[in-house]
Design brief:
6-stranded mixed sheet, mainly beta, globular, single chain, Immunoglobulin-like, about 40% strand
């Protein structure tokens, strides 16, 4: 016979087990990195993918669950996957040589960490130039923002070239025989630059008072930005061009949540809803105060969550992405009812403008950072040039000897990003969500993001709380800019 004490302990144990989350005893989701074949411009091509065994790309899960994933590398070369926008332990962040070694051919890697916030995120290779070969997939963490009667549509944008990425990079760097040596106007690691604080140095109030608060972009008024380093053969939405677009069935009069992910290596777009009126409700997975509109900018690596209410009449609704500064476009078709689908040209009627920060300056975080004075400020100059294709941060081309930007756990940190180049740079911080707090000298409680666009000759300030200790990458998300040296790290314990 069980004693009363034993019975109580048994009952308590049963109650505890009953409260365990559903994922606690479930096997991990398996993702396989492998080659696949798709058709682009009528030609079969071999590209990469990361998908579940049934072919489902990426992962769709829910906030509050555990991210339990096993990555199998079926390639004949190493790979490593970064969970873009998430805040894992740094050893699981997926950056070769910083957070973990690459997964060898035939090898596996396991990931297990809690999902504390939801939104639209994505996963991509951080190994070599594999991202250009379409090694990317959605990572959707549901948190109730869509609602039970809202259809979700994921749109992955990508740029494609028949030229291998190594050849693209070699072409960009032609004439750079001195790559890796000290270039004119470039400071080497450990050398101080006049008027610049070095990594790890804190700024006083007097330092702050002397900072340049001039209107960013003033010099840019006299010079057009330099856009689109790479001339691509095609632009894809869900692996298809507009010659054979992804046609997605939706309900006439229904509500749709577009989750748009720019997984392109180098290309920014204007998302054009045509006759539809949309409402932007989140950027980079993080909710913002709603902004209505029909056209929204999206830089490389950024995401947009846009709510739509479709007309009640059957119709085909193109959702287009027009290449920044050019006429090329891609997109998907939302087919409501049995409406016919007309062909949409791959060229817009007119070239689109360069992306600006006009929308960024309007965005307001739904849940901003708590008001607090910065404990530490880093001045981060974005430097380099197309000549010899050298890109850098604070005049330093990344190498393993570059010291990290030092912060301390618990600090409020501000990064003052000043683009000294004629090209835009989407800057991405791993392991943290930051807030845009200043554009053009004007302070405001802007959007929470993980990737912010810094246009040419412009200054943007972002703030984050150092609440996820580790060794984190911070870099331009233009693939060839990052590989050419616009990369650094943040490290704290």
């Amino acid at each position: 016979m069980l004693s009363r004490r034993t019975a109580l302990l048994t009952a308590l144990a049963g109650a505890t087990l009953g409260r365990m989350p559903a994922w606690a005893d479930t096997p991990p989701v398996t993702l396989r990195v492998e080659r696949r074949s798709i058709e682009v411009n009528g030609k079969p091509v071999s590209v990469l993918r990361i998908a579940q065994p049934d072919g489902t790309p990426g992962v769709s899960t829910a906030v509050g669950r555990q991210f339990r994933v096993r990555v199998d590398n079926a390639l004949d070369v190493p790979t490593l996957i970064h969970w873009h926008g998430l805040a894992p332990p740094w050893q699981q962040d997926g950056v070769p040589g910083i957070s973990a070694p690459p997964i060898p051919p035939g090898g596996t890697a396991d990931y297990d960490f809690p999902l504390r916030f939801g939104g639209t995120f994505w996963m991509h290779s951080h190994q070599g130039l594999q991202e250009q070969e379409l090694l990317a997939a959605p990572l959707i963490i549901h948190d109730g923002r869509a609602g039970p009667d809202v259809q979700e549509v994921v749109v992955m944008l990508a740029d494609f070239s028949f030229t291998p990425p190594e050849a693209i990079f070699a072409g960009l760097r032609k004439g750079s025989a001195m790559a890796g040596m000290k270039m004119p106007g470039m400071k080497m690691p450990g050398m101080k630059m006049p008027g610049m604080k070095m990594p790890g140095m804190k700024m006083s109030d007097s330092d702050m008072a002397g900072m340049d608060m001039s209107e960013p972009g003033a010099a840019a008024k006299d010079a057009a930005p330099d856009l689109n380093d790479v001339k691509y053969d095609a632009f894809l939405a869900n692996d298809r061009t507009l010659a054979d677009p992804d046609v997605i069935r939706v309900a006439p009069g229904g509500d749709v949540l577009l989750r748009i992910i720019n997984s392109s290596a180098m290309s920014a777009y204007h998302v054009d809803l045509g006759a539809l009126q949309g409402t932007l409700i989140a950027v980079d997975g993080m909710r913002v105060q709603p902004v209505p509109g029909r056209r929204f900018p999206i830089a490389v690596a950024q995401r947009l969550d846009i709510r739509l209410t479709l007309p009640r009449a059957p119709a085909a609704h193109p959702v287009l992405a027009i290449l920044e500064g050019e006429r090329a476009q891609t997109g998907v078709i939302l087919r409501a009812g049995d409406a016919p689908v007309a062909r949409v040209p791959t060229q817009a009627d007119a070239a689109s403008p360069a992306l600006t920060l006009t929308l960024e300056a309007r965005l307001r975080a739904l849940v901003p950072l708590a008001p607090r004075k910065a404990d530490r400020v880093h001045l981060v100059d974005l430097t380099g040039s197309m000549e010899n294709y050298v890109w850098s941060i604070n005049g330093v081309v990344w190498n393993k000897d570059v010291p990290p930007l030092a912060v301390a756990r618990g600090e409020r940190v501000e990064l003052v990003l000043h683009n000294r180049t004629p090209m835009p740079h989407p800057m991405h911080l791993h392991g943290h969500t930051f807030q845009v707090v200043e554009i053009g000298g004007r302070r405001f409680a802007g959007a929470m993001r993980d990737t912010v666009l810094v246009p040419p000759r412009t200054r943007v300030v972002v703030a984050f709380d150092a609440d996820n200790p580790g060794w984190w990458a911070f870099h331009c998300h233009l693939l060839y800019h990052m590989d050419a040296g616009m990369f650094t790290t943040v490290r704290y314990v």
